[in-house]
Amino acid sequence: MRDFTLAAYRQLLDAFLEAGYAFQTFSAYLRQPQPKVILLRHDVDARKMHSLHFAHIQYEKGIVGTYYFRVVPQSYDEGIIRAIYDLGHEVGYHYEDMDLAKGDPYRAIRLFEQHLERLRRIVPVSTICMHGSPRSPYDNRDVWKYYRYQDYGILGEPYFDLDFRQVFYLTDTGRRWDGCSVSVRDKVDNHFGLTFHTTFDIIAAVRNRKFPARAMLNFHPQRWTDNLLLWLAEKYNQYAKNVAKYWLIQWRQNRAAL
Q1: Which tens digit of pLDDT belongs to each residue from 104-160?
Q2: What CATH number is attached to the domain comprising 27?
Q3: HSE on the CB side for 150, CA within 13 Å?
Q4: With CB atoms counted within 10 Å of each terminal CB, which end of the chain scores lower, N or C?
Q5: What is the pLDDT along the chain (258 residues), one digit of tens a residue?
Q6: Is 137 exposed, middle or buried (0-12, 13-18, 19+ CB in 10 A)?
Q7: CA 1 to chain CA centroid, nearest Å
Q8: Is 67 a domain residue?
Q9: What are the two backbone dihedrals, phi and then psi, of residue 50, each rounded to the nearest 5 degrees?
């Protein structure tokens, strides 16, 4: 079976359910964490209808996830945002305001305020998550060196408010689950000594009771499809992106060492 399909995604969810995992939104976990739990995080960067498909699959299985929307046209859609929220999922702001403000924190926080209020006119928002903006020299998290997101009624941000020594983190960045070498910013320290390459590797670990009790899995739904032509296009497009990001990371590291 091909990886990064909706069929593979359903198998993954079923494996967690069969192994007795609970599912919580990020905000629910911060308020009252379950002892054996999966946090399904979705970065809605593009192809927003794919995220709605994910939301329906979860709804059919009686589980919940968290969806972070950017404010750019390829992500932001009021109808889809409402539909996902109405299915019982959490919606948050996928902020990239330092990038949009070209590194100016004062302008970035003004943009953050505007964008957060725009999203909150549609649905409640209590958590946020940075967009990696891999081509940008600016880290969107840097705005919080000058301001506090708690002052905006925000309960948490995964990169600041999850203890990754207690919560195992996996991301499909790079269209693989071990893409740290081609991830510019979407990465954390691995305290569990575990790595997985494919979705089927994760499924096998879950079924063999070799997966951690608590984990956040970060999905980019635009990468997941049963349509063969779109699947192939995404596969080879991501390969080209990975090569570019790898050399970008090397260039930045060499430049920083000078």
Answers
A1: 999 999 999 999 999 999 999 999 999 987 778 899 999 999 999 999 999 999 999
A2: 3.20.20
A3: 4
A4: C
A5: 899 999 999 999 999 999 999 999 999 999 999 999 999 999 999 999 999 999 999 999 999 999 999 999 999 999 999 999 999 999 999 999 999 999 999 999 999 999 999 999 999 999 999 998 777 889 999 999 999 999 999 999 999 999 999 999 999 988 889 977 555 567 788 899 999 999 999 999 999 999 999 999 999 999 999 999 988 988 877 767 756 555 454 555 666 665
A6: exposed
A7: 24
A8: yes
A9: -65, -35
Domain span including residue 83:
6-257
Specify if 1 maps to a domain. Answer: no
* Residue 26 belongs to a domain: yes
The C-alpha angle 182, 183, 189, rounded to 5 degrees, equals 115
- What's the total number of domains in the chain? 1
Distance separating alpha carbons of residues 39 and 24, to the nearest angstrom: 6
DSSP code string of the chain:
--SSSHHHHHHHHHHHHHTT-EE--HHHHHHS--SSEEEEEEEE-S-HHHHHHHHHHHHHTT---EEEE-SSTTT--HHHHHHHHHTT-EEEEEE-HHHHTTT-HHHHHHHHHHHHHHHHTTS---BEEE---TTSSS-GGGGGGTS-GGGGT--B-HHHHS-TTTSEEEE-TTSSTT-GGG-SS------S----SSHHHHHHHHHTT-S-SEEEEEE-GGG--S-HHHHHHHHHHHHHHHHHHHHHHHHHHHHHH-
Task: Say if CB 72 and CB 116 are below 8 A apart.
Answer: no
